[in-house]
């Protein structure tokens, strides 16, 4: 748990407090404008890919000793991540953290309150994600975007 907090904090500092983070965020927002502002979009994309691969390697190094590898072992975490982002709101890092906390708490409560409810654990995230998409598509902390053409 401590290692996760350290990696999250380091990633937040990298994205929010450095010139590289500014370049990554601006390139993700609009590649053409970032290129016009003098950022080498190909270099930023390669660095972003390298950071992604490094994070995947750290995740693999932590997970492999603890579990058996199967083709579907990442299905539940991927659903949880997608549901956390949808619940928190697209484009809001704080919202994604809040969404992950809410989903984790909801899953724990379902397992705790419902007898033999551990099999329902996977459906909690999907149910909450569907409700959020129906009621508030922008998420809890998301903003709605309008593009002018």
By secondary-structure content and strand pairing, the structural class works out as mainly alpha
* Helical residue percent band: over 70%
Return residue spans where pLDDT drops below 50 for at least 5 consecutive residues.
none
| Radius of gyration from CA coordinates | 18 Å
What's the total helix number? Answer: 7
N-to-C span: 46 Å
Strand content: under 5%
Q: Would you count the extended β strands for me?
A: 0
State the shape. globular
Which sequence of SSEs, written as H and E, runs from N to C? HHHHHHH
Multimer state: single chain
Query: What does the largest sheet look like?
Result: none
Please characterize this protein's 3D structure.
With 149 residues, the chain is an all-alpha fold. It folds into 2 domains: 2-66; 75-135, no CATH class. The chain is built from 7 helices and no strands. It has helices spanning 2-17, 19-29, 31-36, 41-63, 75-88, 93-113, 121-135. α1 (2-17) packs across α2. The longest helix is centred in the middle third of the chain and has 23 residues, at 41-63. The protein starts with a helix and ends in a 14-residue tail after the last helix. The model has no long low-confidence stretch (mean pLDDT 86).
């Amino acid at each position: 748990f401590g290692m996760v907090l350290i990696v999250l904090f380091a990633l937040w500092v990298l994205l929010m407090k450095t010139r590289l983070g500014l370049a990554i965020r601006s390139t993700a927002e609009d590649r053409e404008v970032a290129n016009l502002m003098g950022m080498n979009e190909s270099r930023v994309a390669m660095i972003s890919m390298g950071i992604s691969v490094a994070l995947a390697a750290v995740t693999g190094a932590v997970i492999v000793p603890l579990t058996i590898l199967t083709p579907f072992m990442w299905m539940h975490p991927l659903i949880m991540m997608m549901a956390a982002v949808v619940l928190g709101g697209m484009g809001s890092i704080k919202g994604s953290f809040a969404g992950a906390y809410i989903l984790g708490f909801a899953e724990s409560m379902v397992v705790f309150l419902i007898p033999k409810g551990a099999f329902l654990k996977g459906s909690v995230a999907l149910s909450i994600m569907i409700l959020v998409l129906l009621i508030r598509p922008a998420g809890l902390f998301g903003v709605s975007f309008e593009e002018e053409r």
